[in-house]
């Protein structure tokens, strides 16, 4: 399917602790797959597409808010990855948005029949941005499960645009933390790691 293929390689940046970044580059360990029920793009390894500064900002944020991170960050750092997105659930693409709508509809019907509450997206504390994306995560994971059940080709990665932060000027369509995020489901998409300058 041509709409799911993104030609070329992308650079992804992952904010973490310096020791972890060095160990991954040296081949001593791997980045761990995130499997939180609130992950924005479902389960996988997360990167900021082409955005070193945002990755470092996030690592610093995690150091300063250590209750929000499963890893202890004492020396914020960034690891870069060369990524081939392969078969990508690109959420900047009309056809894939329709897949997501269908997944939501079917998930809603299933949960409604079970009597359990539907997951919701919500902010953390007093922040305005919706950072806990339980609904989005459930919809995306449901889409992956549907494809597996129908024996369709699995998505190797997920890519989405997010508007985040304050407007950069009054009535702006641009916000301070706008970004494209990548979630790698298939680790073979990661062709190599390096420490950026």
Summarize the structure.
The chain contains four helices and nine strands. It is an alpha+beta fold and 197 residues long.
Element layout with pairings:
Blueprint: E1 10-17, H1 18-25, E2 45-49, H2 52-64, E3 76-83, E4 88-90, H3 94-114, E5 121-122, E6 132-133, H4 134-149, E7 157-162, E8 179-184, E9 190-194
Parallel strand pairs: 4-7
Antiparallel strand pairs: 1-2, 1-3, 2-8, 3-9, 5-6, 7-8
Helix pairs in contact: 3-4
Structure description:
The N and C termini lie far apart (37 Å). It is globular and about 50 Å long. The protein has one domain. It is of the alpha+beta class and 197 residues long. The mean pLDDT is 93. The chain has a seven-stranded mixed β-sheet with strand order 4-7-8-2-1-3-9. Strands 5-6 form a two-stranded antiparallel sheet. 29% of the residues lie in helices and 23% in strands. The chain has four helices and nine strands, in the order E-H-E-H-E-E-H-E-E-H-E-E-E.
């Amino acid at each position: 399917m041509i709409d799911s293929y993104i030609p070329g390689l992308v650079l992804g940046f992952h904010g973490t602790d310096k020791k972890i970044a060095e160990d991954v580059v040296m081949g001593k360990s791997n980045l761990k797959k995130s499997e939180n029920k609130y992950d924005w793009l479902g389960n996988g390894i997360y990167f900021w597409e082409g955005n070193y500064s945002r990755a470092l900002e996030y690592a610093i944020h995690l150091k300063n808010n250590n209750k929000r991170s499963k890893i202890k960050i004492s020396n914020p750092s960034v690891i870069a990855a060369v990524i081939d997105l392969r078969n990508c659930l690109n959420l900047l693409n009309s056809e894939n948005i329709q897949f997501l709508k269908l997944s939501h509809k079917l998930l809603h019907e299933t949960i409604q029949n079970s009597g359990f509450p539907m997951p919701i997206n919500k902010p953390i504390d007093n922040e305005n941005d919706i950072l806990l994306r339980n609904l989005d995560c459930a919809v995306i994971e449901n889409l992956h499960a549907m494809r597996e059940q129908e024996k369709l080709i699995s998505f190797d990665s997920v890519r989405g645009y997010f508007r985040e932060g304050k407007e950069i000027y009054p009535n702006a369509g641009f916000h301070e933390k706008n970004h494209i995020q990548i979630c790698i489901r298939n680790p073979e998409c990661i062709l190599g790691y390096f420490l950026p300058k």
